[in-house]
Amino acid sequence: MAGAPIALIRGLPMLKKWKIDRIITILTLVTSVIPVYLAIKKPQPVAQPQTAAMATQNAKSFEEKLEQLEKAKEPEAAPAEVHITSNEVSAAFAQSAGAIPAATGQITPNTDIGSMPAILDQQVSFDGDQVHGQFLTTIAGKNVWITVSGHLGSKDGYATFEPTEFKIGDMSVPTSLVNRALQKQLVDQRDKLKLPDSVGGVKIENGELVLTQK
């Protein structure tokens, strides 16, 4: 039986290599599956849902604040400035898309906003000087949440945006990988970024959207 230990000893390097290869295979499989899982996993919402009554009131408040900017100002008066909450912005988005139900209910990720088929749901929140946007869309047949955060500003009568965070599902993506494509999209959509004639500036400050009269 002396040959058995010798054979076992001789086989250890092959066994070790097999184990290493198996571990590498397992790690490769796991690390390839995790990003896919994270990409389709729903992230933590950036905003809380609103009841229909709350959304209707917030949408009305949004309109009233914009109307303040359209009023003619006195020659010596400083430009008017309005502060808009993220709930007011979200409600205005939902109302413009026809997503605020007439009856009492909740605006949820399942709310139908048929006028914007590419975006199945959207949420907006403000934090400090940043805006956080979360959008549900379809990628490769799967519903995927896209989360983007950044600084909103204005230049030459157009809105500008500089991203600070980008996520697909629950997976973070370096902004350096997406900023170039994002800025190109903004250039292509430049007409849609033109500020209303009554608005001279836009920024996020102290967790609110601040619009300054022109």
Describe this structure in words.
It is a single chain. This protein is α+β, with helices and mostly antiparallel strands and 214 residues long. It has one domain. It is 38% helix and 29% strand. The strands form two sheets. Strands 2-3-4-5-6 form a five-stranded antiparallel beta sheet. Strands 1-8-7 form a three-stranded antiparallel beta sheet. Helix 2 crosses helix 3. It starts with a helix and ends with a strand. Mean pLDDT is 77; it is low at 100-117.
Kindly list the characteristics that best describe this protein:
214 residues, five-stranded antiparallel β-sheet, three-stranded antiparallel β-sheet, 4 helices, alpha+beta
In terms of quaternary structure, the protein is: single chain
Total of helices: 4
In which order are the strands of the major sheet placed?
2-3-4-5-6
Strand tally is: 8
Mind summarizing the main beta sheet? 5 strands, antiparallel
The structure class reads: alpha+beta
Q: Which stretches are low in confidence, meaning pLDDT under 50 for 5 or more residues running?
A: 100-117
Share in β-strands: 25-35%
Q: Domains counted in the coordinates: how many?
A: 1
Quote the distance from N terminus to C terminus: 96 Å
Approximate shape: globular
Helix and strand succession?
Answer: HHEHEEEEEHEE
Q: Would you tell me the overall average pLDDT?
A: 77
Helix content percent band: 25-40%
- Based on CA atoms alone, the radius of gyration comes out at 26 Å
